[in-house]
Amino acid sequence: MSTKQDNEGIQEEFEREPVPSGRLKGWKSFLGMYAGEHAAGTEFMIGPLFLTAGVSAFDLIMGLLVGNLLAVLCWRYLTAEIAVKNRLTLYFQLEKITGPNLVKLYNVANGVLFCFLAGAMITVSATAVGVPFDLEMPKLDDTMPNSIPWVLIVVLIGAVISIIAARGYDTVSKAANWMSPIIVIAFIACGIVALGQLNVSSLSGFWEIWGEGREPFPGQIKFTFWHVAIWSWFCNAAMHIGMSDLSVLRFAKSAKSGWTSAAGMYIGHYIAWIAAALLYAVYLKTPEAQAFLNNGEAPPVAPGPLAYNAIGWFGMITVVLAGWTTANPTIYRAGLAFQAIFPKSSRFWVTIAAGSIATLAGVFPAFAMKLLGFVALYGFTLAPVGAIIVFEHFFAEKWGIVKDYAEARGITFNWIVLASWLLSFVLFYSISVSQGVFLSFLTLPAWLLCGLIHLLLSKQFQKR
To answer: What's the number of CA atoms in the CB half-sphere (13 Å) around residue 375?
Structure first.
């Protein structure tokens, strides 16, 4: 099958046109991508961070069950439905609605946030590469790099990940398909070994690891069932209700490929999170961790040493691969965002630039150590823009408004979109700050309000 290629010999990604039928992919391609991306580097961080938040056994197990199901339903019935209907990237689809000038502002914010998330995964991989060098690992409250070797390791890992992402979706998908089975096996092995190290031989013993929960570590907030359920639903809000995964699901032959997100949610965001939490539970029983706690400090969360302690070199290698499988598609998405800003630029080199930003972010451990809070902010910021696309897709005809208004009227800046996002963002972010409300609790209200304001303002002002 022939494919279009750019000047570097990289396959054309159809950034500004619908994906042709000859390039569509079956569900297996997405199964590997979702399993690889979501049973990956973030999981080694998030599982332990739940323990630092003092979550109970019931709240963790049931909260993850409910939250991940809601996420899968969003991917299947919102993202995938729109993706196979239009077969456009998020950025080109949004440009039709907002106009090219406004979409550039969104693309900058989207691309930079993606780079920061990818940077956190580069940090995760670096904790594994640092094990044989006996590298000092970043602490939970660290923000700055702690050594020159740390910086060099991050730069090396970032360079490799960026090149893979720059090769395009096919290369990203193949890398995920190759790595994801290894990572899944390693997570399961880590969980089993950790249970043995914790002397757990029954369900009641497993339950007692978390028990009724405990007080959160210094600097962390207490997580309940609702924190776990809502956070796990919206930790990928930018991808599903925020419509970022239009950029990958546009290659799907059918909207049913949206169900493959369940592989990521229930292998990665369920089994892998729990397995990683077990690794951290083992570490918390060590004299080193107890010394931190006795001093009123939070023990460090370093995925590399945790996995190495459980399954040796296989665990260390898995952490490296796990960081890659999250960072690869994330940098790919960031590259598409920046490509939309500079449409005449080479996609390969734009993606390399995105990878460079991610690598710079990875040097600073704060993005990984504060991952729960960062992901909540990331989803809250980007998700409401996806509501513009969703509400237009499902309600434009019923409300009698023009779809893709900027393209239809030839305008470059649709102020209605900016007003809708700003009003919803400012209102609910102010509530979070002033009332101390967990930000993920406000993601859905902000998303709904943004879509509704867009319909109302469009109905009113398009008549003029």
So the answer is: 22
| pLDDT for the residue numbered 8 | 43
pLDDT at 6: 45
Rounded to whole angstroms, how far apart are CA atoms 190 and 200? 14
pLDDT in tens, 130-163: 888 888 888 777 788 878 888 999 999 888 888 8
**The model scores a pTM over 0.90:** no
What distance in Å separates the CA atoms of residue 83 and residue 347, rounded to the nearest whole number?
Answer: 21
What pLDDT was estimated at residue 103? 86
Cα–Cα–Cα angle for 45, 50, 51, rounded to 5 degrees? 105
CA distance 257 to 76: 7
pLDDT value at residue 1:
32
Q: How far apart are alpha carbons 124 and 131 in whole angstroms? A: 12
User: b/e string for 405-428 if b means 16 or more Cβ within 10 A?
Assistant: bbbeeeeeebebbeebbebbbeeb
3 state SS for the chain: CCCCECCCCCECCCCCCCCCHHHCECHHHHHHHHHHHHCCHHHHHHHHHHHHCCCCHHHHHHHHHHHHHHHHHHHHHHHHHHHHHHCCCHHHHHHHHHCHHHHHHHHHHHHHHHHHHHHHHHHHHHHHHCCCCCCCCCCCCCCCCCCHHHHHHHHHHHHHHHHHHHCCHHHHHHHHHHHHHHHHHHHHHHHHHHHHHCCCCCHHHHHHHHCCCCCCCCCCCCCCHHHHHHHHHHCCCCCCCCCCCHHHHCCECCHHHHHHHHHHHHHHHHHHHHHHHHHHHHHHCCHHHHHHHHCCCCCCCCHHHHHHHHHHHHHHHHHHHHHHHHHHHHHHHHHHHHHHHCCCCCHHHHHHHHHHHHHHHHHCCHHHHCHHHHHHHHHHHHHHHHHHHHHHHHHHHHHCCCCCHHHHHCCCCCHHHHHHHHHHHHHHHHHHHHHCCCHHHHHHHHHHHHHHHHHHHHHHHCCC
pLDDT of 17: 84
Residues of the chain with pLDDT under 50: 1-10
Are 258 and 89 in contact, with CB atoms under 8 Å apart? no
